[in-house]
Amino acid sequence: MPVQILALVALVPIALALILMVGLRWPATKAMPTAWLSCAVGAMAFWKLPVAYIAALTTQGAVTALGILIIVFGAIIILYTLQYSGGMETIQHGFQNISRDRRVQVLIIGFMFPAFIEGAAGFGTPAALAAPLLLSLGFPPLAAVIMCLVFNSFPVTFGAVGTPVILGFKYLTGLVEAAVVSGAPGVNFDSMESFNTVVGQWATLMHLPMIYILPIFMLGFMTKFFGQNRKWSEGFGAWKFSLFASTAFSVPYLLTAWFIGPEFPSLIGGLVGLAIIIVGAKKNFCIPSTIWDFGPASEWDKEWTGTVSADSSGKFKANMSQFRAWTPYILIGLILVVTRIPELGLKSMLAGVSVSFTNIFGFEGVNGSIKYLYLPGTIPFALVAILTIFIHKMPIGKAAIAWKEAIVKMKSPAIALFFSVAIVSIFRGSGVADAALNPNGYLSMPLALAQAVSSIAGQTWPLFASFVGGLGSFITGSNTVSDLLFAEFQWGVAASLALPHQIIVASQAVGGAMGNMVCIHNIVAACAVVGLSGMEGAILRRTVWPFLLYGLVVGTVTALMAFVFLPHLF
User: Fold this and answer.
1) pTM of the model
2) What pLDDT was estimated at residue 505?
3) Which helix (H) or strand (E) element contains residue 283?
4) Helix (H) or strand (E) holding 28
5) Which of 184, 158, 172 is nearest to 258 (CA)?
6) Is the torsion defined by CA of 301, 305, 310, 312 positive or negative?
């Protein structure tokens, strides 16, 4: 059967999920099971895979999804514990009186604070946390959501302690090891761990131009569409503080990625950058000479506000000292560092404890495992959440409510993730080299897609690779799942076009991050907390423009790396 036909069949689950969620506005809890069913049917009808084998692959995907869900739960329980302990309100109170200029406030609270939260927690929590804070300071709800969604992009490649890279590219392990053994030109990695590090390094360079361009662009966007005078220039007037903020974030971000690894760039970049720009703002460093504000709320467009207005959202108060409020995040950072440095010994000890599922349903090579102690969802997130009960002197009743709500919150992401990752598992398992399972010897679904796409795009693929990652995040709601879904596809395209694998895969990682600003899941979550439910379409129509700008810049950088810089290094 022609590879083009196979590629179309492989495209069906992706296109179906897109149509159901965007066109028909289905929730992911309904769309992803339907997309999985179409994937299973395609695998049986065209690849002739046995039903039992598809069930085994689906189970394998469920095991992988469970590992991701442990991290999601840990991120949520930390957030809920801090909310019910009063720690989060104390942190928010500390932000209130740094500057009255809305351009400065949005760079601190909409850009830097979510970058740190993304590195510590990830999984859609930053925008949902920062948007209400901006709302409380007097931002129109629509502006608050858009700014937070767009700014939470470049930190997302590394997500919660490197999860999108470390877990997202796990299915590339065999391909990476084969490339190392073959000694192919341009291979500057010697193991899967080394490959993840290299991908993270290149990804930071792809992000770097937009770390400087995007904040200035969005300041102008904010003053143009939400200001009294509707002028881009008013936002650009804060260019000095914007460049200061970008530098404060990008330096530790790059240094961490290049000299430590993919687990901490966003966390350290956000934390160090946050501290630097808060001190700078308090000392009036690079602050604009004039204060910019939105017009009176009575003059705002009706579209800007929802059921929760800026005037009625209330003020935050300090329930404890700032140090005590920040202690859980300090502990998270310390524990992560201690448990991720191999020389200290804890990394191998925690990673060595796992629950394994070998040869699921009797199919050789269909395996899964959960390193439950090494997953950040347990250590440090859940551990620190328990310690926070004592550190913040929480009543047991409030702690119980926090845990109960976190558990309830897991229902929808669990359904969506189980079926999303099951699709990934069927995708990659469809090309198994076993005549009894794959009687026609067809390529796997992602490789069939790769071959068909590469024949069309040719050597221009580096310009478009990041948009595939963005599409994955848009559909699945997760950079991690986007990487799981499309990493082998990107590797296949790179192989067929003789492009450097690490550059194309890094572009996938960057694309998954920029897709965060148009991700339906994140938009829905952010809208819900600021009373804008039903306005998701209006937000998507606005965030698609910075998304396209991001993709064009990243595509240009990727092409330069692939064709100009990297070939001269080897």
Assistant:
1) 0.76
2) 94
3) none
4) helix 28-45
5) 158
6) positive
When the pLDDT of each residue in the chain is averaged and rounded to a whole number, the result is 86
Task: Report residue 237 as tokens.
Answer: 């007037």
Distance of alpha carbon 355 from alpha carbon 442, whole angstroms: 32
Nearby residues of 380 by Cβ (< 8 Å), 6 or more positions away: 331, 332, 335, 336, 339
Contacts of residue 279, defined as CB under 8 A and 6 or more positions apart, other chains included, come to none
Structure confidence at residue 570 (pLDDT): 46
CA distance 83 to 101: 27
Calculate the dihedral angle through the C-alpha atoms of 76, 79, 81, 85, rounding to the nearest 10 degrees.
-170
Backbone angles phi, psi at 253, to 5 degrees: -60, -50
Region 265-294 average pLDDT: 92
175: nearest Cα among 541, 450, 401, 398: 450
**Which pLDDT value is given to residue 59?**
95
Instruction: Give the pLDDT of residue 14.
Output: 84
Contacts of 267 (CB under 8 A, 6+ apart): 116, 119, 120, 158, 161, 333, 336
Fill in the amino acid letter for 223. Answer: T
Q: Are 442 and 431 in contact (CB under 8 A)?
A: yes
Q: Which 3 state secondary structure label does DSSP give 284? A: coil
At 479, the pLDDT band (50, 70, 90 cuts) reads: confident
Tell me the three-class secondary structure of 416-463, residue by residue.
HHHHHHHHHHHHHHCCCCCCCCCCCCCCCHHHHHHHHHHHHHHHHHHH
Tally Cβ neighbours within 10 Å of residue 138. 16
Q: Which two tokens stand for residue 429?
A: 């398992």
Encoding tokens for residue 248? 């404060």
Residue carrying structure tokens 């790769």? 450
* 99-115 confidence digits (pLDDT tens): 889 999 999 989 998 88
Of 142-151, 194-203, 327-336, 384-393, minimum mean pLDDT range: 327-336
According to DSSP, residue 368 is labeled E
Residue pair 140/174 in contact by the 8 Å Cβ criterion: no
Residue 47 near residue 434 (C-beta atoms within 8 A): no
Is 311's pLDDT higher than 60?
Answer: no
- Residue 370's DSSP bridge partners are 355
Euclidean distance between CA atoms 40 and 239, whole angstroms = 51
| Rg of the Cα atoms in the chain | 23
Q: Could you tell me the two tokens for 158?
A: 């590394």
